[in-house]
Design a protein that fits this description.
114 residues, mainly alpha, two-stranded antiparallel sheet
Length: 114
C-alpha cells in the first residue's frame, strides 16, 4: 500500500487564491481587495495568514511550504499596491503573522525540538 497522499489543490482550497482563466494559464496567488480601513485590513491580513499556516500544517509538502514566495510575488504586483507604491495593511499584517510563526519555529529548531 502506498503512503503517497493525494496532491493538494491549494489554489482551490485557500480563499485568497484562484486558478486563472483560461484554464491552464496559472494561478493568482493573491486575489485580495482592501477594505479602505487600515485596522480592518490588518485584521484581514492576520486571518489570511492563519488560513495559510493552518493549511500548510494540515498538508505538509515541499510545494505548500514554498507558497509564500509566489504569494509575495503577486502581492507586490497587486493594483492597489502598485498605485500606492507600498504594501497595504493586508499585506503587512499577513507577512508579520507569517514572520512571527517562522520566528517561533526557528526557536524550536535552534533548541533541537523539531
Amino acid at each position: 500500500m502506498s503512503t503517497r497522499t493525494k496532491p493538494t489543490q491549494f489554489a482551490r482550497d485557500l480563499s485568497f487564491m484562484s486558478l486563472k482563466i483560461p484554464r491552464g494559464t496559472g494561478i493568482d496567488y493573491w486575489i485580495v481587495e482592501g477594505t479602505g480601513g487600515y485596522g480592518t485590513d490588518c485584521d484581514k491580513g492576520h486571518e489570511l495568514a492563519l488560513e495559510l499556516l493552518s493549511y500548510v500544517a494540515q498538508h505538509p509538502s515541499y510545494g505548500n511550504a514554498t507558497l509564500l514566495a509566489s504569494i509575495v510575488g503577486c502581492m507586490i504586483t497587486r493594483h492597489e499596491v502598485q498605485e500606492k507604491g507600498r504594501l497595504t495593511g493586508i499585506e503587512i499584517a499577513f507577512l508579520n503573522r507569517v514572520s512571527l510563526h517562522a520566528a517561533t519555529a526557528a526557536r524550536f529548531i535552534g533548541r533541537g525540538d523539531l
